[in-house]
Design a protein that fits this description.
The chain has helices spanning 17-20, 23-32, 68-82, 123-135, 169-176, 179-190, and strands spanning 6-13, 39-46, 53-60, 90-94, 109-117, 143-150, 159-166, 192-200, 203-204. It is α+β, with helices and mostly antiparallel strands. The strands form 2 sheets. Strands 4-1-3-2-9 form a 5-stranded antiparallel beta sheet, with no helix packed on it. The two termini are 25 Å apart. This is ABM domain-containing protein. InterPro entries: Dimeric_a/b-barrel (IPR011008).
Length: 205
């Protein structure tokens, strides 16, 4: 996996300092100016339904590796993030298809679905189910693009992340009322234990 393009998804549970200080922006700038190899585009945004949770998406050409030359920068970034969160950041590494998932972020709204896959679910068959459920979105007005991938650093349970770019939440709601959505969504729901669904309005760095 070390040479595979990957997206790092960092979940930050914010405290008041996230809004009142420039610490997060400083952390983003530090990473942008760093010598980390393979760093590509970054996007971030607060969950619309939970504005106290910020999502940071970092695209890498390959799995980020720390080195002596980047250790000091990494420590500074960790310190700045520590000042704006109430709990340790959660990091997921996802191999998205397609990569990079740019179309899902250069949109007014990005829908993010994070699901825990049932242990008994056959992943080969489930991958086909995901492909089918996202494929029907592509021709729907207001959908800009989709991407999905498994979390490759999950320790306990298998997780999958889906991204969908929408013109608005209303377009998403309208899509879910269509026959293709009603046909392809239940098999996905059957394959997972639980899901977290939210929107962000992403900003790029």
């Amino acid at each position: 996996m070390s040479n595979t393009p990957v997206t790092e998804i960092i979940t930050l549970t914010s405290n008041d300092a996230m809004k009142t200080t420039p610490k997060f922006q400083e952390a983003v700038e530090l990473l942008c100016q760093s010598t980390f190899e393979g760093l590509q585009q970054m996007y971030w945004g607060d969950r619309i339904q939970q504005p106290g949770i910020r999502q940071w998406f970092i695209n890498w050409d390959h799995h980020p590796q720390r080195s002596e030359s980047t250790a000091a920068i990494a420590a500074q970034i960790k310190e700045k993030l520590g000042a704006v969160v109430d709990s340790p950041p959660m990091c997921r590494l996802v191999v998205f298809n397609p990569y990079p998932p740019t179309k899902c972020f250069v949109t007014p709204f990005t829908e993010v679905i994070i699901s825990t896959v049932k242990p008994e679910t056959d992943l080969n068959e489930f991958s086909k189910i995901i492909d089918a459920s996202l494929e029907v979105c592509h021709d729907f007005e207001g959908c800009y693009g989709t991407a999905w991938g498994y979390v490759v650093n999950a320790k306990d349970a298998k997780e999958v992340v889906l991204l969908l770019g929408w013109e608005s939440p209303e377009h998403h709601v309208a899509f879910m009322q269509t026959e293709p959505a009603r046909r392809t969504t239940p098999p996905y729901v059957e394959g997972v234990e639980d899901s977290t669904v939210f929107y962000i309005q992403s900003q790029d760095a």
